[in-house]
Amino acid sequence: MGEIRNFRSGSQDEPPPHGVGPRRLAAIIVGDIASYSRLMQADEEGTHVRVKRIERDLIQPSIVEHHGSLVKTTGDGFIAIFDSPVEAVRCSIVIQQNLIGRNASLPKHSRIEYRIGVNLGDVIVEPDDVYGDGVNIATRIEGLAEPGHVYISGAIYEQIKHKVVCGYESLGDRKVKNITDPVRVYRVLPDADAVDRTRGRRENALIFLLGITLLIIAAGALWYLLALPHGKMREQAAVPTASPAPAPAPSPPPPQREAAAPMPQPSPSLAASPPPPAPAPSPSAAPVREPEMIAIRGGSFAMGSNDDPTERPVHQTTIKPFSIGKYPVTVQEWNACAAAKACGFAASGRDDAPITNVSWTDAQQYVAWLAQATKKAYRLPSEAEWEYAARGGTQTKYWWGDKLQPGMAGCKDCGDVAAEQPAKVGSFKPNPFGLYDMGGAVDQWVEDCWHRTYQGAPGDGSAWRGPDCTSHVLRSGSWKNDSRYVRTSNRDGYDTNVRYPTHGFRVALDP
What residue segments make up the domains of the chain, in order of their start? Predict the structure, then answer.
């Protein structure tokens, strides 16, 4: 599984060299590059430069964005600590998924892949290191992990199992070096549908083996009949007995539920039965229920606020006429796309609830399918369009005023709102433009790349893109956030390809 090198020596079995620092309960991430020695032997300088670039551009920013602290890095790995197990696991998933993108164009033998282990434990924190069994266990779990995967301890699993929407595969209790008790280990599968796919692969393997077994039995019976001496065949034919029944043909395996993986663009089906009697109808042939849209006349407004550094500077922005969804996209609308095999998964929940747990890439799949099926230019709104529509012609903190009012939005401290799921769309009052849930309900993806401030933002209402766009903007806040996120100027960023339970979207349309 790879070497355990000396960068961990301070974090394993030796006592801290300069007395005992403060203790704290922390979620510990240990990451290590698989096959590091082979990569260094093949290209020492090139590998060193690539690793440092990954640390600078990916690992360190991801740790900071998820509110963790990088303890140290060396040539082949890193250690980080977090107050929140949820943020530690989210950070680990983001690192691995972004590495997949970086490695996509590289041959397998030259890819830099990390194994990551995460544990929760009481540790001793020094200025440049961390000590204790909590770190030791994270290190051993990382040693069990496959390249490109995140493995977590049972202690982490118990903290996050209802808070991070992932698949989890239990690997059972493992005995690890220098730890007395066995450690329960889980593999993290970032897609919530991954458990079903893993189970489906196992079932497919069993069905395949069963089919092979039946074929062998049938072939053996046929060989036996053909190999009988002709005399015995004649004798048996002379006896007035019923002829033996032919060996049963193996039953074809039952059709498997197709679990489509997330894809960057919708793909039409290429399967056809040779020779096809007629071409199969395309997904767009069936009528599509379009989201209800509200036409926005356009105009100018002061975008942003001084309430948060990310919302500065306040700047004048002009919006052209466009239409935007009256509600966030619902589960029913999303599942129409999933049924057409253009969206990556089928959602569960009430049909009239907003779709959740979608990445920005998932949202792009939906608008691409909707545009193709309707022959209309559906898209995500720009961040400027979203804020202009959310304000409804106002310049106050919320569209209804500067004070929070109960029953106006779906958020954690906005009133009596169910904590486990968002209310159905349209449960609260519309804003002056007739739009629902423009604040609370679900976080909503927009087209723009994430920028930490508005410095340099376009003033024409267009989406603010960039050459290296690994994160995109979210607006609105959600039913799990408090009211400061419901402000019309509030903005946040999140990793482009990562799903999260409170993330949804609404669509826009040019005139």
Answer: 6-189, 293-509
Per-residue pLDDT band at 284 (split at 50, 70, 90) = very low
Rounded Cα distance between 251 and 270, Å, is: 26
Residues 6+ apart with CB under 8 A from 61: none
The residues that bridge with 493 in the sheet, in sequence order, are 473
Strands ordered across the beta sheet of 508-509: 293-296, 322-325, 508-509, 378-379
CA distance 418 to 427: 12
Separation of alpha carbons 389 and 408, rounded Å: 16
**CB-based contacts of 462, cutoff 8 Å, min separation 6:** 382, 384
Strand 23-33 relative to strand 77-82, pairing: antiparallel
Of 128-142, 228-242, 402-416, which range is least confident?
A: 228-242
Beta partners for residue 110, in sequence order: none
pLDDT tens, position by position, 118-137: 999 999 988 888 999 899 99
User: Per-residue pLDDT for 283 more than 80?
Assistant: no
Element (H, E) at 157: helix 154-160
User: According to CATH, what is the number of the domain 6-189?
Assistant: 3.30.70.1230
pLDDT at 228 over 70: no
**Is 217 a residue whose pLDDT tops 50?**
yes
Alpha-carbon Rg of the chain, whole angstroms?
28
In 14-84, alpha helices (H): 36-42, 44-54, 60-65
**Total residue count of the chain as it appears in this document:** 511
DSSP 417-477: --SSSPPPTT-S---TTS-S-SSBSSEEEEEEEP-SS-TT--SSS-----SS--EEEEES-
**Mean per-residue pLDDT, 236-255:** 43
Using N-to-C axis directions, what is the helix angle for 331-339 and 360-374, rounded to 10°? Answer: 70
Mean pLDDT throughout 319-336?
96
DSSP structure class, residue 8 = G
SS (H, E, C) 159-213: HHCCCCCCEEEEEEEECCCCCCCCEEEEEEECCCCHHHHHHHHHHHHHHHHHHHH
Structure tokens at 326: 């009256």
pTM attached to this predicted model: 0.53
- By C-alpha distance, which of 249, 223, 80, 200 is closest to 150? 80
The fold for domain 293-509 equals: paralog of FGE (formylglycine-generating enzyme) (3.90.1580)
In the three-class reduction of DSSP (H, G, I as helix; E, B as strand; rest coil), residue 297 is classed as coil
Residue 240 has pLDDT above 80, yes or no: no
Least confident of 219-223, 344-348, 470-474, 481-485: 219-223
Q: What angle do CA 234, 236, 237 make, to 5 degrees?
A: 60
